[in-house]
């Protein structure tokens, strides 16, 4: 029964005096034999242990009635003393439940013992009505998941404190799924943690801690004061990662994808991934000589390795990430989903995503909320992510936790998705290992996220050049005298006779000797090739090396018909039905192709060749502007029909996902997906182009520079609706200028297309291209249905993508006095006005690909205009926006000597567009008139 139902029951009139004798009888029968009462009553009595909070909110009268019920059930026995020893009274259930709910607040989590616990009355025996005389009474404890069925109250209380108030603080009672809660209870209460780990495992824990501490001390002595974001204080992170690797391989996982913040990254790279120490030392000293693009700092870099475990080889990959730390989380999830879809037949057990967070960042950065919100959404599920927090108990230089967050724990954000949260003190390695295995078991069982809050400290400041005592004097006074976790655990193992006095020091010497060789210190690790860069790709101006393969007219016509004919069993909405009727006419040649039809046909040709496509974003199934309709909603039963999934057997997979209302996390997810699945055409569409503003960190730090920094190739496509139609400042500009400012070294492609055929051809090129580069398309809005923005089936069958499109009207080149360069929708405004004015002395040239700039194509066209020296760049955007400030420089390079290039467009503006339609139309009229007026 849900807790809300229990609350209603407790507050109902059933517990009134008139019903007490009847309920008393039922409850007594239930205690003797639970199956003797009806299912509904059994459920009520069974769940009393889960209703502590509801009990607190009940009226005093009803609580008194419950105690009366309990006393009556006891006294009705022939031997009340024996009953007292064998009956599990409600107040004992409440005591047990209180520890499950609130025990974590009294847990010993802070290694420094600086955090003071508030008194929790509900964890006091007296609070639940017990007296000192009850401490040695025995109780039957069927609802407490222990091996012993009968224990004294004092033993029960001691055991509860050990389980829930020791080095582990478990938060799980917020979970609404009762099965999950019961599962966690059993795992916490049934397992004897004292005998969980063998002597060999304990010695391995100490070796891991020795390696973690040894590397940091070695680097600190070699490079004092150099930034390395030391792991010291959180050394137990290596135990977590090693446990994940070996334990997940037992679960038949073959790949672990890891994303992490700076802290401890170098330690993880060396001690887990097997990065050669000499390579790291070279990076510190600046002596590295590799063929990189721009490269990145050492604590941003990743690595991929194969690890030999007792159960087989497992591949682990650490993703590169920027200083905007939490943005790596959706990238890792996207990569995991790509592997699940493309390589593991959608079996999420095969791939395990792990994200490692800082305590201030996980609660402070909004992308975490966006990422968690996606975790159980169909298009973005990965079977659960293990989320680890390196909880230094201080964010950056925050001097008071009250300044870091508004909640008690940094992991409270995990409660929004009902994730269990296990807080664990980092100075207790065995508790850390136990929590790691428990978390993995939960993830594999329930396919959901789980949090490990590794409560530790940082021995140095935010970085090694920082002086932390300036803002945390008391904390760092304590840290200076606090022993390391290796020292603490070594002493523990000596006292329990797991090792002798010399073993710990021998481990230190053995590890130091490995460091002195400068090689790989992890003998079970085989790092893969780390040189991901190919400088020839960075300097190759011909991004689309793949030749354009034409498809026959008859083949395209047949394919267009196939995806336009919908089974009669699918009841279509009337407007959608007309769209598909029109597409059938386009397939037969009776109507030209519009934007949506050409786009869907491009996907069909790609899928038919066995290449998969993934399309995501807000409203992408139908398209924000009611143009795509890749997904048809049956009007009779709400089921979905996707024509592109029914082309032929063995076709590529086609998935289209209406995303959550997020740009940053979703775009980062799609970037990770596209990078990890190079043979899938992956597309993200913004609902409006300027919505991508909310994902600027993804564009700046991954899409535009990932290849130059880290060697990552990614063929992600961005559709950004762009165009000035009087819809105001928030629905006009996709900020074309920002993308052009990011362009260098052939890093991305930026296109503004004007015909459906252009979209058809460039999508096919992108899907087949050997060199994977992001493609930014300023996609249209009004052009989706513009009567002139059309293409014939012949344009698709025999045409090709053109970076530049010359004049289309029959104008004599020798009579041309002015050439207008433009891109996008404004072309049609210029064309129509010129035709209306009969101005045959002006040519209009469309530049469809703005970057890489098509020098050769423009030079070839301009040979026809040798006598022209009057050139205009015309754009809809304000003077300080759009393409002008970037495009003018390459344009001047290709113009003949003595030529004049002038701007025509809106005046400079702080806002992307005006908010009044009348002002918009006047500005549009003026800029077109200015471009066409020869003085």
TrEMBL record:
CDD domains hit by this protein: TPP_E1_OGDC_like
EC number: 1.2.4.2
Protein keywords: Oxidoreductase, Thiamine pyrophosphate
UniProt key word Oxidoreductase: yes
Cofactor(s) of this protein: thiamine diphosphate
Organism superkingdom: Bacteria
Any one biological process term the GO annotation gives: tricarboxylic acid cycle
Sequence segments annotated as region (Disordered): 906-935
Gene Ontology CC annotation, any one: cytosol
Known function: E1 component of the 2-oxoglutarate dehydrogenase (OGDH) complex which catalyzes the decarboxylation of 2-oxoglutarate, the first step in the conversion of 2-oxoglutarate to succinyl-CoA and CO(2).
Name this protein carries in UniProt: oxoglutarate dehydrogenase (succinyl-transferring)
